[in-house]
Amino acid sequence: MKRRRNSGAHFAVCVDNCDYPASLELHKIYRVVPDEDAAAEGDIRIIDESGEDYLYSANRFVEIEPPRQVRQSLLHAPKGA
Fold it and tell me: Which domain holds residue 53?
């Protein structure tokens, strides 16, 4: 997954939750936690349904740049919501 160059929070949509249906919701937007070591290994660190950050294969997600209003809503949502 290619990392965007802009600063601030990053978001990704889950496109494959196979083997992780309790942890990942298909088509849900997740907040990405920067982790260069994980990215170098082809992984992505996201805050999943548990409200904690975990590593998943980056090919399960597509990074997005949500519209400003959606971004603000995502940044102010409670963890795990």
Answer: 10-75
Domain membership flag for residue 2: no
CB 24 within 8 A of CB 17: yes
Write out pLDDT tens, residues 11-55: 999 999 999 999 999 999 999 999 999 999 999 999 988 889 999
Structure token pair of residue 13: 């949509």
Q: Is the pTM of this model over 0.85?
A: no
The rounded distance, in Å, linking the Cα atoms of 8 and 75 is 10
- How many structural domains compose the chain? 1
Enter the tokens of residue 57.
């294969």
Residue 1 lies in a domain: no
